[in-house]
Amino acid sequence: MAIFGSVRYPNLLHLIIVINLFFILIIGSSEHEKLSISTDRASLLSFISQIVVDPDNALQDWNSSRLHVCNWTGVTCSHVKERVTQLDLSKRSLHGTISPALGNLSFLVILDLSGNFFRGRIPVEIGALSHLSQLSFESNLLEGETPAELGFLCRLVYLDLGSNRLVGRIPATLFHNTSSLQYIDLSNNSLTGKIPLSNQCKLTELRFLLLWSNHLVGPIPPSLSNSTKLEWIDLGSNSLSGELPAAIFDKLPCLQFLYLSYNNLASHDGNTNLRPFFASLLNCSRFQELELVGNNLGGEIPSIVGDLSTSLLQLQLGENRIYGSIPPSISTLVNLTLLNLSSNLLNGSIPLEVGHMGKLERVFLSNNSLYGEIPSTLGEIPHLGLLDLSKNRLSGLIPDALSNLSQLRRLLLYENHFSGTIPPSLGKCINLEILDLSHNRLTGMIPREVARLRSLTLYLNLSSNFLQGPLPLELSKMDMVLAIDLSSNNLSGRIPPQLGSCIALEYLNLSRNLLQGPLPISIGNLPYLQVLDLSSNRLKGEIPASLQASTSLKQLNCSFNNFSGFVWNEGAFASLALDSFLGNSGLCGSFSGMSSCHKKRHHRFIILSILLTSLGTPCFVLCIFGYLLVLKLKTRQSFAAFHEAVSDDEEQQTKEHMYPRISYRQLSEATGGFNGSSLIGSGRFGHVYKGILHDETKIAVKVMDSECGGDILGSFKRECQVLKRTRHRNLIKIITACSRPDFKALILPLMSNGSLESHLYPNHGAGRSLSLIQLVNICRDIAEGMAYLHHHSPVRVIHCDLKPSNVLLDDDMTALVTDFGIAKLVIEGGGTSNAVFDSSSFSSTAGLLCGSIGYIAPEYGMGKHASTKGDVYSFGVLLLEVITGKRPTDVIFQSGSSMHAWVKSHYPHKLDSIIEQALQQAAPSDGTCDSRKVWREVIMELIELGLICTQRSPSARPTMIDVAHEMGQLKEYLGRDVTFEGPWSEGSSG
Length: 990
Fold this sequence. Notes:
Oligomer: single chain
Number of strands: 53
Distance between the termini: 60 Å
CATH superfamily of the domain at 757-985: Transferase(Phosphotransferase) domain 1
Helix content: 10-25%
């Protein structure tokens, strides 16, 4: 038969494969006349019997005896012979294994099962589908080796097995016998060995070859030159070696994309000459992108780089050992949008001609030895959004011309030798998100024009310069900035209280300056502040009690100032040590090594100060006034039960008995007058206190903050609406509500084990207390609760603020989702879910960005309405946070990227450090090799699920039902295959 015309028999195994397949085809051809559509139907039913189909899945019509098989979802038949020719079940969230029965679909032309959760091996029977032209199993969980039988699909045009868990070598038959192939994608697996392309391979039709992110070794095969129609080659993130080819690409005139990054390739002449390689690309007239990052390539960038196709859009040569200067001829690449030459050994100055490349959007020249001044011509690039010149030897003034870059979002000039003042004109860069001018020789004051840049939402770093003068009041305009570092300068004057307006601030470093006066109370009231460094200044007065009452503060350094007064190792200070307060002779308190405070009344005074500071708001004043009024006018008491709070008259009569009446006075007595010692948390719309009622019931009282104005009513009503309509073991349950004109509170059961966040980031500084089994169970509980809200609740709900602090743990460590203050109720219509945005319910919060920084789905930032897929994104971030041990905001600050992007940059072959850290924190240290292997698999599963949930496109994310099902299977897998003795097996939730 013709199919075997080009087969070579390198060993007996291939001969056996050929003989077996020969008999399969011969027997199959003799039976074709006997087979009918009923045979295809039986094969499909056998296939579906091995997979799990969700109740809401459209594949339910496969169970209908009245519906013809050709009308089943995903099935297409030929009109002539009425046989199944196409099976497309991509992105259906299917689980299970792929049945060998698919090999009986003799007329199948297209088989697409991509984007599901199929496990197990690829059936060798697929190799008998002689009519198959398209085969895609991409983005599943398939494992084992790639069947050699796939190499005998003589009509195969499209093959995609990417993003699975395939191992072993690439079968030689795949490249030797399928000459019709145009598209091969085996990327993102764990394949080993060499690329099996020899001179006998005649893949003359091949256009796409994607083998990135595997463990392939050896040189790039010269026989690639036989595939003259190649457009896209991606061999990145492997272990390929040898010289960069100089006799392949000149024979590929259609080549557009070439990705060879992160291998072990070298340039010619002992890794000193890049010219032969670039010369081989000159014939590629449609060339668009070249990536050679991370190969340790040596040599200079040849001047012929400017002779590459003018269609080139991206040139990436970073993380190599390229030396010499940047050739001015590079400017002839007039359509280049990305230029990356970072982390090399380049010297010389930045060519003026670079400014003539008018299409540039991102320029990375960091971590080299470039010197001279920044060419003012760079300010003539209209679309430049990122300019990174950090870690060089550049000097002179920062040019005013940079202010012309209206699209500039990130300007990184740190660790150079720049002098002079910061140009006030930078304030014209109204889209700037990151400004880092640290570690230079800048002088003068911080320009007000720069300080008022509201677009700075990530960080401002001006540290380690010679700046002087006061802190500009305009810094308060940066109300969404995450980090400010002004340390190691000569700044003087007082810290302005207006800094308290930077409500998103998590990191503030003002150390090693000449700042004077007291520390404003408003700094301690910053709701997300985690790190505060004020060391080595001249600050005086008492350390504000608001800092000690902070629920977010993790690190504080007040050392070497002139602070005085009393400091107690309580509240946020409980996790601190004496080092945080050294060099302040006027301080006394309970820290080991600190002078003790002799007068007991001072202790009472400082506790009272903490209470007055943390609760000294109009809300607290109103509460105290209301308390006194109740005592004086008992006959005029007004108590509101839960149904009154939501103004639902219809349900008032039928459900009134379900919610006990609890008065303001009872709540006040239960919480000690809403004492600061009872405060267990704060949020966007109020504070949460713990308390005990007269019947010994432990409660949590969520008091809405009246300072929120009109927002409080909308938040209160939303949370009441959600809690009264939902009943699920993984959602917080309501006890009742108390509503008065000046006081609104929800009364909830007190969760003895606190929040998930408190276990992930314990205040006492010790490691996590949760085992991996507990974490899996907790994440499964969260997924179950969210799936109920999205798909099964009487009124569908979008949570909008899912994060560890909004997940509580009960006595049995069962997770309960809470805090529905900005949730969206959903109405169903036309098969879609639409969030309700009525002014009476949402007030001014309708325009709020839904969620917390780091957990917010990217589409929300583009004005999209809240959706269930936004909650899926937040869950994915939470999942990655649980495994990596990093807060998403930490990742944003440290790497400038989202949690998804940061983890994705390590996936799959750079995850060892993350997995090992997770193993140390949450898995037994004395486990066997087999058990550690199981744990690694579990961690990898969680990482992959987190990445799937946080994909940028909402439509690509699974539903919470899919996620809950996957977490459920993972929990069952742990229960079945992993057994532990001792404390590691305790505390798992049902």
